[in-house]
Every structure is written in structure tokens, then in C-alpha cells.
Design goal:
mainly beta; six-stranded antiparallel β-sheet; globular; 48% strand; single chain
Amino acid sequence: MGKVFERNGCRIKLSEPELYVDNQGRNRSGHMSHAMAELANGTLIDFNSNCSPVRLNGHAAYGWIEYRTSSDKGRTFSDVKLLPYAQQAFHDGIFTVSVEKAAALTSGRVVAFCLRNDMLHPVCCEPWFTPMAIHSDDGGESWSDPVEVSPYRGRIYDVLCRNDIIYILHFCNDAEVTFTGNKPEHLYRLYVSEDGGESFTERSVLPMDTQGRGYGSILFDTDGRLHMYAYNINRERYMDHLVSSDLGLTWEVCEPCYLEKGIRNPQTALIDGVYILHGRGENGHGFVLYSSVDGYTWDKGEYLEHDKGFCYYSNNIVLREADGSNVLLIQYSDTYASWCVNVMHMRLKIEKI
């Protein structure tokens, strides 16, 4: 057993970290692409990047995308498969692909959202082109041609699927200067798809000051309200917070969430009535986890991992176990040398005290 925390009448139990992708063993790296989705038949599809350990010391998207499937909630996985769109893009040499989010529909379709990174730029994980989406109707055996999600260059930071409607949080920032907002036209937009990722419609522009903002997460609460959280590079202990009561058509600006240990690249989840937030800590130090009873006020936080530098990009998915209990599968990057990373898994369960 890993770490255990008691919060608000609950016991939060985390497993020991498990190695998912051994990049060290194959002399590779793998930042950013941590998308996961559970198909209608219970199969988990889990993405990772296979990137150069040399370009930007391993902190770059210079490579391609792999994925594996699991029929036992992420305990064992299939052989590695290559994502054709990402592989072809790498061979063509204009842009690389990252897959940070994916969505699954009741039809069995999975939609993967593709960030296109400028391969020719020295950093190579930015600037960004317009985002694309591809889908598979056969469990990842084959994939559709790409469809543009938005006419605006930028990065899709989160995706949710609710009642077979896909909600997409897109930060319209080309990252020609930096990944945080630095121009008036750098805006967060919410898109939806009601036809399984065939087409996308802008639902709203989120009413917030985007200067110095980056990353983002969206979450439906227990009452069906849609929450949006964003990182503020100038106040890393204060996470911007908006709430919509009409499925993203209009938004209320709330007080920023105070986070004692800070947050970068926030990722959120709701499991067994407990709200979970995890990401990189203040100034990028450590991997930190917070919990909340309402999604507005968060506890003091706990470090899950010690500071190792440029890592701890993460994602999560709630899975239903065979015994009917829920588990939050957390995937994150973990430095093994310089800025090179392995990909790790950690499992979180809630126990009522």
C-alpha cells in the first residue's frame, strides 16, 4: 500500500507507483500524452508518447504516439500499437502529435484529440497548430482521417463526455511567444460535439482574464454544474475557477481556489462524492494531490512524489472494479534522468471512515 490520507470523513488510499512505460530501458522519453478512455465494452485504451531523449534533453514532443489496451482495468496491457496519424506526421517532418485527452461514447467509439506541435521549432512541443480529432470504432484497430476541432491555433486541455455529448476545453493560444496567455485574442473556448467527433461547435467563450493563464481542467459536479479551472503563472497558489449551470452556455466567475502547495497543469476528478485535484506543485516542484467536498474549497494538499524537475504531467480516469467499487487511475510522467521521463500509474480509492 502507498500513501493514505484522512480528509473530511474519508480515507484516501493510494497504491505504490507502478511503471507503465519504461522509457529508461529503451533510452527514450515521453512527456505530455497521457490520454485514457474506457470503451463501452470495458476496455481501457491508454496513450503515451515515444519521444527523443536528446531533443531538449527529453522534454519535447519529437516522436510519435503509442497506445495499449487493457481488459482488467489497467492491471495488464496489450502489446504496444502505433497511432498512424502521429507516425505519419513524424515521417512527414512538419509537425508532431500529442494526445492529451480522449473520449469514449456508448456506441463503442473512442475519439482522440490531437495537439499538433511545430516540429521545426527548437522547443518542438510548441508553437501549436489547430487541434485535430480522430476516432476509432473498432477498439483502436483502425482510425479515421483527422477532423479539425477549431479554426484557432492552440491546445485542448481537457475533454469530457456526458450523455454522449463531448465537451472540449480549448485554449486558443498559438504559443508563438509562450504557452500562457499574452495577447487579447488568447481565449479559452468551450466546444461540443454531438455526433461522435464528426464535427464541433463553439458553445461559449469563457469570461476570464487569460493573461498569464495556461493549462485547464473541466469537471461536472454532483449537481450537474460544469466547473472550469485554470493555472495562473503569476499566482500559482490561486487557481482560477468558473462554473456553468447550463452546460457551458454561460459562466459565473468564482473566487480563485486557494491551494497551499500551488498547482500547475491541474487535473480534476470526482470519485465517490470526493473531488480530487492533482498536478505539479508551485514552481513545478513535486507531484501534489488535493481533495474537496464541493470543488470550491480544497484541503492543504499532499505530495505524492518528491521534486525531480520537469515531470509530473498527468491525467486520470475513474474505473469501476469487478466488485462494484470505484478506482481513480492516475497516470503521470516521472523523471529518470535530466528531463527524460518514464510513465507511471497510481491507483486511488476512497474509503468512508
